[in-house]
Amino acid sequence: MRSLRNQTVVVTGASSGMGLACALAFAREGCSLVLAARREEVLKAAAHRCRAEGAPAAIAIPADVTDPIQMNALAEAVRERFGGIDVWVNMAGLSLWGAFEEAPMEAQARLVQVNLIGVMNGCHAAVPHMLRRGPKGRQGVVINMSSVGGRVPMPFAAAYTASKFGVAGFTEALRDELASRSSIQVCGVYPGFVDTPTNLHSANYTGRTLRPVPPVLEPERVAEGILSLARYPRRALHLGAQNALAVPYAIAPEATGRMAGPAWKRFLTQSGTPAPQSDGTLFEPVEEGTGTRGNWRPDPATVTSLTASVALLAALPIGLLALAVGMSGRRL
Description:
It is built from 10 helices and 9 strands. By secondary structure, it is α/β, with parallel strands linked by helices. Strand 2, helix 2 (40-52) and strand 3 (58-62) form a beta-alpha-beta unit. Helix 1 packs parallel to helix 2, helix 4 (105-131) packs parallel to helix 5 (158-179) and helix 9 (253-269) runs antiparallel to helix 10 (300-331).
């Protein structure tokens, strides 16, 4: 197994959730860490936890990923302190739920800025420093957080889908470009629903409490997957059973989408506990949600109904294929 000890790792969105879990996992590997997020005090506490877990150094640098100047300053600070960047993890991100026309465009634009432009800003800051290492050896690894929503359209999360499809396309294009002129590796991560404080941080315009689609991943599992990419980089890492829905969308997108839309409408806007609309942490951070997990679990009724819906969608291609074969047989 390739050792990560003494490598320098940058993690954005490191104050909670998957970002914090990722930082702690790298700390246990003996990596030096630079953590970035908007909440300074929470970030300092995360850096302290990383040092306690074995990181020889862990520093907190408050930064907003939507600001390219702050991202460039972050990369320069890493170079001055540690001499270079081995792994850069673009983890910062949010979600936004609700009918497209009911969610403020200002909020949707901000979401795209965080999820997509934030990843681009991070890469734009990190890549020049990696390129300066020269063509020989391993110049660095960039890991971009997309989502199952970057593979499968998610009704009532249109802006989120757009941002994550954007991350997926950007990651693929940058990977191919850098492969032609460097040894920098660019990897994409596509998790399903993860138990993080996202229900406290995400924008919600559904009128209902946000609930996850089971099965729900632990953030530590995502972190271990990211460690594996840092050791042995590859194009993509798909985590969670929801990624199986990419198959029916690829084979029968029209039929699958017509089934998915009503199912998401019922789940997001017509069931669950009533809740006020919220911008989440799109524009300003909140005090709540500082751990890796958010106890974001589905209720039993959700498990039953959504498991049936997912199974139906996953079985759709088989049914369509059987129908096509049957019609072909009748024509013969």
